[in-house]
Design goal:
The protein has 22 helices and 7 strands. The strands form 2 sheets. The protein has a 5-stranded mixed sheet with strand order 2-4-5-7-6. A two-stranded antiparallel sheet has the order 1-3. Among the domains are: about 90 residues, Helix Hairpins (Orthogonal Bundle), CATH 1.10.287; about 150 residues, Heat Shock Protein 90 (2-Layer Sandwich), CATH 3.30.565. Helix 11 runs parallel beside helix 13. It is elongated and about 125 Å long. By secondary structure, the chain is an alpha+beta fold. The model has no long low-confidence stretch (mean pLDDT about 90). Strand 4 and strand 5 form a beta hairpin. The protein binds adenosine-5'-diphosphate. Adenosine-5'-diphosphate binds next to helix 21 and helix 22.
Length: about 600
């Protein structure tokens, strides 16, 4: 068992931790034996862990603050504080122990140190992440004791977020409890009730009987605040069955307390007073914390006042004030507030510093990107220029050859020559396309562009084909956008000419429409053309992507790549869909002014 040398020391430490969690009193022996082993093995880490276990034994089981802290102090030198994982474990634990004995400033200091170390752990295990959640939760609770609004709900929200991430239901239940308290304080009873029912559901779902009992009684109290006597009684009945079937005095104290508050809310002040006395009795023998007592005194004073017993009301009011005065020293609370402020300020400074570093890194990337962009542009420019010349030579000499050979070429050779010329022209088109593509970024002048004028220009440019194919263009009145006029002509012209080109209708029809959608205009160019297969909807925007062979439709597959580049450069997006005429709608967005 405890000293079984076949169990590794680490497993033994874990087993001891579990025994502590279960509050098993004979854990003491197990720790004794394990410590002897650790000392023999000179395992400093385990010695540290076991001394912490002693410390926890004295808080959880013996409730002896002095021994608890004494062992914590003895453990400290065994923890290598340069390792975030070890340091945060030590301080987190220390905080919880101080907290347990209501030494709030010490608890706060230990928690904050733990958080600092914890945040340095690169990849937290689930246990560590839950520990961090517990610390955030405890810090929140710690400040709610002071009744000063030092903290907002941020710490609680952080705790809840972590617990949710880890699916840690007991933690979520605790957080919900704190949220309900908070809502109740603000008189948001309906909202509190929703959380309370959810908390009850979670407790039931995980067979957590005591939390089910507590949640039921809290729900009963909230229903009473809504003056719903029947539901209130039903939930209290349920809570009573569970809580009194077990012998856990603190939970019974909470039951009496909630019950008394419910009765007070329903106006049954005499009965409320009876329950407050029961609660007070239980709290005094179990957890006579200043907080518990002062809260009850205050409510009792209220109950007595309602019953018209002013003398008693005054007496409990005095007790309330006295408890507060005795226990919550203002300077202590203010000191804690100051520590907290410093901590948050430092953290902010750290975050700002990190942000600054990140910014510098980004700046570096930007410079590097700009450089490689420039290089690429130069490359595209040079390549297209230098390529043009040899291509021009190929085409010219092919033409010359054809002319000089005249009738000496047979039909087959003639065909070969025409391939040669065609190929050369195609390379030329592609080069022009690449050049246009690489130039999109150089059109960086933005002005107010009246798209009606843009469309007018495009129609003039396409005049011949429009006339030849009897195209009907139906164009809405378009808005003015902030953009570049050259790029807008390119964009509309590419889309319009495609709409006509990929169209076999007798009368090709093209409609240009737009709508406003939030901060954007959405434009659509719709045709009654040949349509596009769904599986190519996205890929046709890629450079050189074409769906047809050149015999059917001429082109180089660059037009839509340019369109996408232009639209994205302006901050919009482009896509296409089929329409009711089995043609295609090409739509894109541009920021509205
Ligand atoms: P190009 O027209 O030079 O081939 P694009 O990039 O403009 O290059 O178009 C790419 C491909 O997308 C075209 O080859 C064609 O198959 C298809 N396409 C473009 N617009 C339309 C349209 N309105 N209707 C049907 N298909 C289209």
């Amino acid at each position: 068992m405890g000293g079984d040398p076949h169990i590794s020391l680490q497993d033994e430490v874990n087993r001891i931790r579990e025994m502590l969690r279960q509050r098993e009193p004979d854990v003491r022996e197990a720790i004794d034996m394990a410590l002897t082993r650790a000392e023999t093995a000179q395992d400093r880490d385990r010695i540290g862990d076991l001394l912490v276990s002693y410390s926890n034994y004295y808080s959880l089981i013996k409730r002896d603050p002095d021994r608890c802290i004494e062992y914590a102090e003895r453990a400290r030198p065994y923890f290598d504080m340069s390792i975030p994982r070890r340091a945060s474990y030590y301080y987190g634990n220390l905080g919880i122990n101080y907290h347990f004995f209501f030494r709030l400033p010490e608890a706060q200091a230990a928690y904050l140190t733990a958080i600092q170390h914890m945040e340095r752990i690169e990849s937290q295990t689930e246990t560590e992440s839950n520990m961090l959640a517990t610390i955030y939760y405890n810090l929140y609770i710690l400040f709610s004791f002071t009744d000063l609004a030092i903290l907002d709900r941020r710490y609680l929200d952080k705790a809840l977020e972590l617990y949710k991430k880890n699916d840690h239901t007991p933690g979520i239940i605790f957080c919900y409890g704190a949220i309900i308290n908070d809502l109740e304080k603000q008189d948001k009873i309906e909202e509190a009730l929703q959380y309370s029912l959810e908390r009850l559901r979670l407790a039931e779902e995980t067979d957590n009987e005591l939390q089910t009992g507590l949640s039921a009684s809290l729900t009963g109290m909230l229903y009473a605040k809504q003056k719903n006597r029947e539901l209130s009684q039903a939930y209290f009945a349920r809570a009573h069955d569970i809580i009194f079937s077990k012998n856990v005095p603190t939970f019974q104290a909470s039951y009496y307390d909630e019950r008394a508050r419910a009765l007070l809310a329903l106006g049954d002040c005499e009965e409320a007073i009876v329950f407050f006395h029961k609660a007070l009795q239980q709290f005094k023998t179990t957890v006579p914390t200043a907080l518990n007592l002062s809260k009850i005194y205050k409510l009792m004073s209220e109950a007595y006042e309602r019953c018209g017993k002013l003398k008693e009301a005054l007496e409990y009011q005095r007790k309330h004030s006295q408890t507060l005065l005795d226990n919550f020293k203002m300077d202590k609370v203010l000191y804690m507030g100051a520590v907290q402020k410093d901590f948050e300020r430092e953290r902010q400074e750290r975050e700002t510093e990190m942000l600054r570093q990140k910014n510098e890194e980004i700046q570096l990337y930007v410079t590097q990107l700009e450089q490689s962009n420039d290089e690429l542009k130069q490359f595209a420019h040079a390549a297209s220029h230098d390529l043009r010349e040899p291509v021009r030579m190929i085409v010219s000499y092919a033409e010359l050859l054809e002319m000089s050979l005249k009738d000496k070429v047979n039909p087959e050779q003639k065909e070969f020559l025409s391939y040669l010329k065609e190929g050369g022209k195609r390379i030329n088109e592609m080069i022009a396309g690449i050049l246009a593509f690489s130039k999109v970024h150089s059109h960086d002048e933005l002005t107010e562009v009246d798209l009606n004028q843009t469309l007018q220009r495009v129609k003039e440019n396409l005049r011949m084909v429009i006339a030849a194919r009897h195209v009907e263009i139906d164009c809405a009145r378009l808005p003015v956008v902030r953009s570049n006029s050259v790029l807008m002509i390119q964009l509309f012209q590419n889309l319009l000419s495609n709409a006509i080109k990929y169209n076999q209708s007798k009368t090709p029809r093209v409609a240009v429409t737009y709508t406003r959608e939030g901060g954007f205009y959405k434009f659509c160019i719709s045709d009654n053309g040949i349509g596009i297969d769904d599986k190519y909807r996205d890929s046709i925007f890629d450079m050189f992507s074409r769906l047809h062979n050149r015999e059917h439709y001429s082109g180089s597959g660059i037009g839509l790549a340019i369109c996408r580049k232009i639209v994205e450069r302006m901050g919009g997006s482009i896509w296409n869909a089929s329409n009711a005429e089995n043609g295609t709608d090409f739509c894109f967005t541009l920021p509205a002014r």
